[in-house]
Design goal:
Elements lengths: L8 E11 L7 E10 L4 E5 L3 H8 L3 H20 L14 E3 L3 E5 L2 H12 L12 H23 L11 E6 L5 E8 L2 E8 L5 H21 L6 E8 L8 H20 L2 E6 L2 H12 L1
Parallel strand pairs: 8-9, 9-10
Antiparallel strand pairs: 1-2, 1-4, 1-5, 2-3, 6-7, 7-8
Length: 284
Amino acid sequence: MTAHQLPSFEAVWWPIFLETVPGSSEQLCVAVLMRAASGQAAVRQAISPEVLRSLFGSGGKGMTFIIEQTVQDLQRQLNAFTRVEELDFAFGGFRFGTVRDCVARDSDEVFDIAMRLGTAFSQSPFGAENNAGDTDAQLAFDEWTEQVREHTLAGSNSANLADAFNVQVPILSAKRLRIGFVRGGYVAQFGVLRVGKSLNTDQRALKLKLFDLEVLRRENALAFHDAELIVGVESPGDSHPKRQREALIETWDFITRESSLRGVTPLRYPNSHAAAEYLRQRAA
């Protein structure tokens, strides 16, 4: 790394802990708050709904609600220019951990570092399906991508879009990212969310797609200024248990928040025809 590539974004960050049982001293790092030297501050959730469901079973929904509401309320206070030292938690049981210094390329990288150092659950596969499930998710993602591609190219005057699919894009670290669709300054990744047992692995795979887009925008901000996540989401019918329908809503809300924090727009479509029609319009 040359001198002009050295990180110059200075910040501090705090882990945010939740005492899971009042008086027990048992704590989980559930979020991270970052404040840049410039004064910019933001907070992100550090533990996913799938992990909370695995840890707390039927109580996972309540824990997810409390954590999400707390993170959103903290961000509202930060947006109103409340000093970190004067922030109030929406619920009891939360506290800040020890502040830590950090130097990175931008706020996203600070959060990435903080998540890795602050909590094992931000990177842990706990609560997710096994490798067989991951393989199944990849196959489902590939099938969705191919369906969208076929329907997109089937449209009139769309043959010129063939080279825009499955593009390897070089980044500064001398690696290459495979991106689902690249057209000028626009990039998109593809994925699915399926109701039932596949939901957790689909969410995990979508997060990896988000991370790819985040890295791409961070290292090629001038070249790629518009990023989207195009997701096939089936609409659960009455035959699906209520819990499965609720889990789908929670998971999509989580993906929406994570996308927003990374400058990515998530879009959901009931079928590949609708997604392809949008993509043709987007690329026109």
